[in-house]
Specification:
This protein is an alpha+beta fold. It has a single domain (3-126), classed as Zincin-like, CATH 3.30.2010.20. It is built from six helices and three strands, in the order ααβαββααα.
Length: 127
């Protein structure tokens, strides 16, 4: 998929975030990269042979103090190739990109992977 089209999918994922949450996002940039670097995989604790779909790099809102100022923006990075690789068609890719964007935004708000897993499990029970 062309980069511009993939970036549009990321924008669509961001558009699904409720306005009240979007308004509380602070000092964060969203970018697309082709694949995660070895350093990104290592820093995220990804086992050999596995990959990342997205990555949050920064200080979550819940850990920011009054001393948090004049800093570079946090980053949400969405990795195009791994998402394309695990998606069987464009509809599945749209869903995975949306889920990845929402997952990384949750990290910006201080929600851990463990808590996100719990929320996802609860959501599946309700369906």
């Amino acid at each position: 998929m062309e980069l511009e089209r993939f970036e549009e999918l990321v924008r669509r994922g961001l558009d699904l975030i409720p306005d009240e949450i979007h308004a509380r996002m602070s000092n964060v940039d969203i970018e697309v990269q082709d694949v995660p670097s070895p350093q990104q995989l290592s820093a995220a604790g990804v086992p050999h042979g596995h990959t990342l779909l997205g990555l949050y790099v920064g200080i979550p809102l819940t850990r920011r103090t009054s001393g948090y100022n004049m800093v570079m923006p946090d980053r949400i990075i969405i990795f195009q190739r791994p998402l394309e690789r695990i998606s069987r068609n464009e509809d599945a890719l749209v869903d995975r990109v949306r889920d990845t964007v929402i997952h990384e935004v949750a990290h910006h708000f201080g929600i851990s992977d463990e808590r996100l897993d719990e929320i996802e499990a609860e959501r599946h029970k309700e369906q």
